[in-house]
Design goal:
Helices cover about 30% and strands about 20% of the residues. It is an alpha+beta fold and about 350 residues long. Among the domains are: about 170 residues; about 50 residues. Strands 1, 2, 3, 4, 5, 6, 7, 8, 9, 10 and 11 form an eleven-stranded mixed β-sheet that branches. Keywords: Coiled coil.
């Protein structure tokens, strides 16, 4: 192991091969590819959309840390980067570490400077095993084996902001805030999924993450998110003996209340806080700003687009169902000895 490398991390690689349109290359045996890990990888990979530049993720969910990069396969390997038809491929390479053991997390600055160095060996190893295999031979992923990673031990500040998940909502911020968000993630003790590196806001119609940074944003935007599969409501806080995974400094105790029989009035919440609380409760504030109106109109536009997409998908599924029922009826008729095709020329 090279100086500074961290052991105990399990590789996760998502990327198709030259011949086979199957994508899981390696995954820990304890995880189901259809579970939260699949949702997390999709959140950063997103079908290869808007990957002109790499995206990075830091996620805490279901007792695991996940960190990795989604990028063009050509960035990592000079040969394994197109399919048999010459189309360019994209991939996700990352690592998982259980919360049961202390783990040093990479900084975003380290990821940006060393992503190729860190990811190319893992990509070459696990994609190389299947690159020329037939589709029938690569239906299941390989089982992850712990390997050293390139980042050194990092000790984030013990106090400061953390990332908090608001159910059903994703917080999109300007790309200039990516380092602040990442550092907050390393301090977090609650589930979250951060993706940094999106180029365009229009690419995130319904983000599958809790926090993201976008290059063409100039201010924070709150949007509807799709994170049901991440089990982000689960209580996966570490036990006392594993608290070192995410350093945390508890707040100072409140001073004792003054000895008085007169109750101390609670100060009213600032107007901005009240508006935000009303927003999460689904209430319409008494006074709304132009920004509130703009954000609500944007959310409604996205909901309409999602609704239209669902209707198109339902129509396609209905058509497939009807075709399947016709095929089933025809097959049943053949099995029963009848001829379902009146033009087949059977004898009367």
């Amino acid at each position: 192991m090279a100086p500074g490398e961290q052991a105990g991390w399990l590789p996760v690689v998502w990327g198709r091969t030259r011949r086979a349109d199957t994508w899981w290359r390696v995954l820990p045996a304890a995880l189901d590819s259809e579970g939260w890990i699949g949702e997390a990888v999709y959140a950063v990979f997103a079908g290869g959309r808007d990957l002109e530049r790499p995206r990075f993720t830091l996620c805490r969910s279901r007792g695991w840390w996940l960190t990795g990069v989604a990028c063009a396969a050509a960035d990592l390997d000079s040969e394994m980067h197109t399919d048999e038809n010459g189309r360019p491929l994209f991939t996700f390479v990352g690592w998982l570490h259980t919360l049961d053991q202390p783990a040093a997390l990479p900084t975003l600055d380290q990821w940006e400077r060393h992503r190729v160095e860190w990811a190319r060996g893992t990509y070459a190893r696990w994609c190389g095993m299947d690159w020329e295999a037939l589709p029938s031979d690569v239906s299941l992923p390989h089982e992850s084996v712990a390997e050293p990673v390139g980042w050194s031990s990092n000790a984030p500040a013990l106090d400061g902001a953390v990332l908090r998940y608001r159910p059903g909502r994703a917080e999109l911020r300007p790309d200039s805030e990516r380092y602040t968000l990442w550092q907050a993630g390393t301090r977090s003790r609650e589930p979250f999924l951060l993706v940094v590196g999106w180029s365009a806001r229009q690419s995130l119609k319904a983000p599958h993450c809790t926090h993201a940074t976008v290059a063409d944003l100039s201010a924070t935007v709150i949007v509807q998110a799709q994170v049901d599969g991440l089990d982000l409501d689960a209580d996966d806080r570490p036990s006392a003996d594993t608290a070192a995974v995410v350093p945390f400094r508890p707040p100072a105790p409140s001073p004792p209340a003054p000895a008085s029989s007169t109750p101390v009035p609670t100060p009213p919440a600032p107007a901005s806080t009240a508006r935000q609380r009303n927003r999460w409760l689904g209430l319409i504030p008494g006074t709304a700003s132009a920004r509130d109106l703009e954000q609500l109109e944007q959310e409604l536009t996205e909901l309409r687009e999602q609704y239209a997409d669902c209707r198109r998908e339902i129509a396609m599924l209905r058509d497939r169902l009807e075709r399947g029922e016709r095929d089933l009826a025809a097959l049943r008729a053949r099995v029963d000895g009848a001829d379902p095709d009146p033009t087949s020329g059977g004898t009367g």
